[in-house]
Design goal:
single chain, 2 domains, two-stranded antiparallel ribbon, 6 helices
């Protein structure tokens, strides 16, 4: 029975990106990285391109040694990037028709409709 490779998650993708960035900054070739890490160029290509299966802890360690990194830093940076990309954007404040800024939690749609009706009534001129 053939095994299906584990799919990459967001942390795996970020680890691959960090290793790829640091490899580019190191100014060494894949041939040199292969020789110094013991990881084949074919496997390095899969890791750098974030292809399944994801890099193992051992592979991350071997590459980190050559790239003068600590595995704990690589993992921490990946966690920070994933957290930053999944953080909810701040909720924008609501602005009423008269330009008043209101906290969204304190202002319901019904209250907005009432304020809009009041403003329309105030603008109407009686004959």
């Amino acid at each position: 029975m053939a095994r299906t490779p584990k799919q990459l998650g967001p942390h795996d993708e970020q680890v691959a990106e960090i290793l790829r960035e640091r490899f580019a900054e190191a100014g060494i070739t894949q041939v040199e990285l292969e020789a110094r890490s013991g990881i084949s160029r074919k496997r390095l290509g899969k890791i750098f391109n974030a292809e399944a299966p994801p890099a193992t802890v051992g592979e991350i360690y071997q590459m980190s040694e050559v790239l003068d990194l600590r595995v704990s830093d690589v993992v921490r940076w990946a966690e920070e990037r994933v957290a930053a990309s999944s953080a909810a954007p701040p909720e924008a404040p609501l602005v009423t028709l008269d330009g008043e800024v209101v906290d969204p939690e304190d202002y319901t749609l019904a209250a907005m409709d009432r304020d809009a009706d009041d403003e329309v009534e105030a603008r109407q001129v009686e004959p």
